[in-house]
Amino acid sequence: MYDLKIINSKIIDMETGEEKTCDIGIKDGIIVDVGNCHGSGEIEIDANLNITSPGFIDIHIHEEEIDNVIKTNSFDVTNKMILEGVTTAVAGNCGSNKQSIKKLADYINNCGAPINYLSYVGHRYLRGLAGNIDPYSKASERQIKQMAEEVNKSLEDGAIGISFGLEYSPGADFEEIISLLDLVKNRDILLAAHYRKDAKYGIDSIKELIEVSKCTSLPMQISHIGSCTAFGMMEESLEIVQNAVDEGIDLLADCYPYDAFEASIGSPVFDEGCFELWNKSYDSIMLSEGPYRGKRCDKNLFLKLREEYPTTLAIAYVMNEDEVIKALQAAFVMIGSDGFFKKNQGHPRGAGTFPRVFKKYVREMNKLSLRDALRKMTVMPAERLGLANKGKLKVGFDADIVIFNPETVADKATFDEPTIPPEGIKYVIVGGKVAVEDNVLLNNRLGRFIERKQEI
Ligand SMILES: [Zn+2]
Fold first, then answer.
1. What count of Cα atoms within 13 Å lies in the side-chain half-sphere of residue 21?
2. How far, in Å, from the CA of 162 to the mean position of ligand 1?
3. I want to staple 403 with a disulfide (CB 3.0 to 4.6 A). Which of 152, 225, 347, 427 is the partner?
4. What is the band of 235 on the pLDDT scale with cuts at 50, 70, 90?
5. CA of 337 to the centre of ligand 1 (A)
6. d(C-alpha 121, C-alpha 99), whole Å
């Protein structure tokens, strides 16, 4: 007797692309049979020949503040992501954490979460702990030592590695990065980095990240490469990364399927000279929260908000879609949402990324095959993260599963209404239990915190 049996599943073999119809038997949260399942299930669901895939793994999100989760009894970010079929995500990206790894892990271990979480410890968060609150100044030797101690503590508490947000901490030079990494005891970690600067500076920024990986022999995940070089230099940047990969440097990247990015209006991304850099004007910036939500900037509004309300989220419509597509197609690029919401306001990538790839780039524009899209959402991030039991529908693997209709799956979130759930997601299963049925969230406490060391 299975706990859960899924009949009439259509599964795509990630290596051969072959489709086969089968049943899946699940017991104690683990896939125990794939093929003809003769036993019955305590719960049985009919996939109705829809695609049945391993749950999507989002290697790049920005997590909730746990104090706010407790206050509202809701997860601002992952409550939406699970409706897309995401069952595991990586928090703490771009150098930032909302709280200590221990606080995040303890809460999720005690109370559950919509999906499974892993987390980096962020370099900007560490700088704050060490007392460096000026993003434009370099950390002192003493501060670097203190940051390294905090890294070692965070790794003990289950962090998977260190993330950097160099664009947001311009004072952190190459030497600061390398000095910090030299002091980290555990070498079995993953680095992720939001590059130092975009557009024409993007090439040098990517070279810097390659150099960090080379000097430290640590694997590097280049964050949202689309917003780094989809300004006329994507092809060159992809070639540089591919050449480094061919030399044996352990580099991969992620990308979200949108040609606009989001950041706080007061952040260094919008420092003087940004519009010349992007060859755009003030009206390429739309405010995405607060009283001006939905409004395009002019010079006065832009300067006023930077001065008076610097944390206001803003969308920048500044990238070239054809170059974002080139990034999505690159062999070393996986799908990552960079998803983040603040009181239900923000960028639609937090509620639409995965269905959008299927709708727009697989179905409508034919830029990716269904198999390649699925690989970039499942097996590729699972391997990158060392998740030996996730990313495949095989016996012995965790029963994190999404069932969706490949003909109708579609994102509905827009820049005006960024939290509208997608369509076409039939079921999402986390740890062998049904979390979502027909786009409706039934259980948002099935996820757990995954420590990197548990998986090795
Ligand atoms: Zn970032």
1. 7
2. 13
3. 427
4. very high
5. 10
6. 10
Q: Which domains does the chain have, with CATH numbers?
A: 55-259+319-389 (3.20.20.140), 268-315 (no CATH)
Residue 350 alpha carbon to ligand 1 centre in Å? 13
What's the gap in Å between 194 CA and the centre of ligand 1?
5
What's the gap in Å between 344 CA and the centre of ligand 1? 19
228 Cβ partners below 8 Å, 6+ apart? 195, 198, 202, 205, 206, 222, 237
Residue indicated by tokens 């689309």: 226
CA dist 287 to 346, 416, 417, Å?
A: 9, 10, 13
Residue entry with tokens 């959402």: 377
Dist. CA 58–CA 87, nearest whole Å: 8
C-alpha of residue 409 to centroid of ligand 1, in Å: 27
Where residue 453 falls among pLDDT bands split at 50, 70, 90? Answer: low
Q: Ligand 1 centroid to 224 CA: how many Å?
A: 7
Q: Is the pLDDT of residue 137 over 60?
A: yes
Average pLDDT (18-35) is: 97
- Which token pair is 246? 């061919």
- What percent of the chain stands above pLDDT 70? 99
Q: How far is the CA of 93 from the centre of ligand 1 (A)?
A: 7
Q: Which amino acid is at 191?
A: L
> Would you mind telling me the total number of residues written for the chain in this entry?
456
C-alpha 390/C-alpha 393 separation (Å) is 8
Residue 455 reports pLDDT greater than 50 = no
- Residue 256's pLDDT band, with cuts at 50, 70 and 90, is very high
Average pLDDT over all residues of the chain: 96
Asked whether the predicted pLDDT for residue 456 surpasses 50, the reply is no
Contact between 302 and 285 (Cβ < 8 Å): yes
CA 315 and chain centroid, separation: 18
Q: Which residues are near ligand 1, the ion (C-beta closer than 5 Å)?
A: 94, 194
Whole-angstrom distance, CA of residue 205 vs CA of residue 203: 5
Residue 187 is predicted with a pLDDT of 81
Alpha helices in 196-233 (DSSP H): 202-216, 226-229
Look up the pTM and report it: 0.96
Sorted by sequence, the CB contacts under 8 Å of residue 72 that are 6+ apart come out as: none
